[in-house]
Amino acid sequence: MPHRIVFTPEARDQLDQLYRFIAGAAGDTAVALRFVNGIVDHIATLADFPKRGTPRDDIRPGLRTVPWRRRVTVAFVVEERDVVIAGVFYAGQDFKALLGED
User: Fold this and answer.
1) Count of alpha carbons within 13 Å of 78, Cβ hemisphere only?
2) In total, how many domains does the chain have?
3) What does the pLDDT average to over 22-48?
4) Fewer CB within 10 Å: N-end or C-end of the chain?
């Protein structure tokens, strides 16, 4: 049975910010929408293959990451029935510092 994809509020905010950034830089909301939808489509594949990616227990227990188009890193945690998207980081953002436990 596929896992359910759950976005944290922070991950949703990051996708919104990325959309606004690309729309402003490209001057075209369609370009931004295609880019962000591509990320969301990639994330959706985790429902069937949730253990994909690189384990990053060094940052947070249970954390995994997958890249998308060499510019985006998706951070997530696999739970019993859910894949929780913890963050969507663009262009070299320091996700280690942002996700590290304090």
Assistant:
1) 18
2) 1
3) 95
4) C
69-79 pLDDT tens trace: 988 999 999 99
CA 20, distance to chain mean position in Å, is 16
Q: 17: helix, coil or strand? A: helix
Which tokens belong to 46?
């985790």
CB 6, CB 83: distance < 8 Å:
yes
C-beta separation of 83 from 65 below 8 A: no
Residues in CB range of 67: below 8 A, 6 or more apart: 73, 74
| pLDDT at residue number 79 | 96
Beta-ladder partners of 87 = 75
Amino acid at residue number 70:
R
Q: Which domain holds residue 8?
A: 4-99
Spatial distance between the Cα atoms of 76 and 51, rounded to a whole number of angstroms: 10
